[in-house]
């Protein structure tokens, strides 16, 4: 996220009669309101958003990401939203007063904004500790807050020369999230909680104790049932500890207070000089009705500042719902707020926690069905009516698998007896998605009902064009389900598959009509049974002769596991055109030649070889985005001749044609750059030489940057490595293409060996479990748990397969051979490279190249080919490996 934003220049003036809407506050609720207005049409409206922060509206739910990675972009939606002429965003401008008589809003800068409708979305502030020394604590609320914590831990670690003791006061949602972030930053995490157990607002005692055990097993120190009395500091103001009410002193170097929030309702407390016009709740917040209006006409409140039913809640779902309601009302609708949904699901340092509905069984005669396993740290509870039929709520700690399936059924009859949904006790929930009623809310963050999902899948008008949606990314884009916290994505996928099946669209994990197994299942079968040929695989798991889906997939799986020459033993016929030719075919039937230039580093001598080859064969040359040189225009029979010259000069195949590692892009690093903190070039070369030739479900790209300036654009790669003063930060799952994705932080401040070990595990886990042609970004997105699951497997070895993954990578490294060098050694292999099988020495005269206006060669157009003006023969002298004398070729 950029730290500097400016109000956009309107693309066109607003209509003279436009209704003026002022939004006080620029957080997620305000952003959702603007999106909702935009979706309903902005004709006749002029909306001004006043935010005191310097940023575009950002995702506060994801603050933990910014705590551990200060460069992460949390911006909500597309920045282009604010380019609309009817929208104006004023950053750094805090609303300070309302004049209800004049219908204006005043700001701290002294500006006055008139309004026809005022939407207050000022959110809340972090509550402060009422104890001595509280001025020395940090809070956890804004981007500036988390960046200050990050910098504080880094500075203290450097100054003290040891691990920092980070104490978080508060064991609720925010407190545990903050403590988990400090642990990721390398500090010793300590939690002080006044209640007897953690997350006491969402969890009962059994669940809270289970969470405490799991958190302590992760290295946290937890003190429950005791309050802090004072934050201790030395004469210089540096924090030294926390004095507890029972007299104990907890060592501390940094203290974070996460003890709750208070509504930012000061706008309603400082009126226009007349009598108090707004009704405030006993604990703050302006009281609203079910239409989200305050008691003053034309003034609305949404999000954490809004008090409904005596409560103000800092949750995404109700804030989004309120924003949609106000937008609907302003457009003439009659939507009403149904009340707060207090459901919570999160993952804390790899521990799943979820709570929803009447989790504490406060309903009269409620029945609690509980499974508790203290040894495993698992606690699951379902609350129902006394006849065990209607779902009232639930709590899950350690294993929250049932949450996404059960939550939409809140208040409804369960399809089976409650114990069947306790996954820890052997129950299952896979069939629930198909049975969800249309009005059951599947995505609470965006208030998307199951019926809306079904409409989208069946093409009933949910999306523009009313075309049926047939995949998960399309469904998320159409309905917005699964685009906020993501916890509903597994259920969304189950519902999608169920609807496709009912529509007669076969939903199968089968690789193709010839292989009933999925790619992952087939990969495991080949690995376990040590199958080495297409015939062996088809004999056990296939039918027929195979097709253009299963043939290259099986060839890819065999190459991933055995490292043998990809065109031997009948495997050549399995490959697609590029792999068969060991080169990329171009539009005119010629091929490109891309030698490997590891890390982008190359000597002048090797540059000279490339120049000589390109000149000799009349090839077009282009520096690629991956810091290599691509030579275009080579005919099939010329490929061995060209590669003979390149291999003799020390080059090897760059495998630009394969589903394998392409490049490792690097900046110049610390060797030359005055900003570099690590030798990025050396690391890039080491990584490229390690993973060269690694066959995978899709192409792989890597980047290594020598400092946080990120010149190698590492976060746009499948694996990105960024140098820090203490080692390397590892990012995974970045992709370019039609649906680009930023790589996500997997681990920080790694030494060289740990970095490589984690990359070994990551690549091999991806290769074993991804679908055919699935990029790493989409693979991570569809994993249950996403990046946290990847972290559990790669960093924490949660599946116990780390050693196996490392061994598989070591086997690849040990057995790697350069494909073009192997090709040139064997005359039988060279027979593949003939334009005409029955005329081995004849060139393909249909291929014609012409010079362009930049001094390069390019394919001739159809008109140029038909013109006699270009029918000239350019002598090209080549000494092919099989020829003893120069030959002439038409180019």
Descriptors:
891 residues, alpha/beta, globular, disordered N terminus
Descriptive account of the structure:
The chain is built from 26 helices and 38 strands. It is an alpha/beta fold and 891 residues long. It starts with 18 loop residues before the first strand and ends in a 25-residue tail after the last helix. The strands form eleven sheets. It has a five-stranded parallel beta sheet, with no helix packed on it. A five-stranded parallel beta sheet has the order 9-16-10-11-12, with helices on one face. A five-stranded antiparallel beta sheet has the order 21-22-25-24-23.
Map the helices and strands.
Layout: E1 19-24, H1 28-40, E2 45-51, H2 63-68, E3 87-91, E4 95-99, E5 104-107, E6 112-114, E7 117-120, E8 124-126, E9 138-139, H3 143-160, E10 165-169, H4 173-184, E11 188-193, H5 205-217, E12 221-224, E13 228-233, E14 239-244, E15 249-251, E16 254-257, E17 261-263, H6 266-269, E18 286-287, E19 299-301, E20 306-307, H7 316-330, E21 344-348, E22 351-357, E23 367-373, E24 378-384, E25 391-397, H8 403-406, H9 432-435, E26 441-443, E27 448-449, H10 450-458, H11 472-479, H12 489-502, H13 519-529, H14 534-541, H15 550-562, H16 577-581, E28 584-585, E29 591-593, H17 604-617, E30 620-623, E31 629-634, H18 639-648, E32 661-666, H19 680-691, E33 700-705, E34 719-724, E35 727-732, E36 744-750, H20 752-769, H21 776-782, H22 786-794, H23 802-815, H24 819-825, H25 827-830, E37 849-851, E38 857-859, H26 862-866
Parallel strand pairs: 1-2, 1-7, 2-3, 7-19, 9-16, 10-11, 10-16, 11-12, 18-20, 32-33, 33-34
Antiparallel strand pairs: 4-5, 5-6, 8-17, 13-14, 14-15, 21-22, 22-25, 23-24, 24-25, 26-27, 28-29, 29-31, 30-31, 34-35, 35-36, 37-38
Helix pairs in contact: 1-7, 10-12, 13-15, 18-24, 20-23
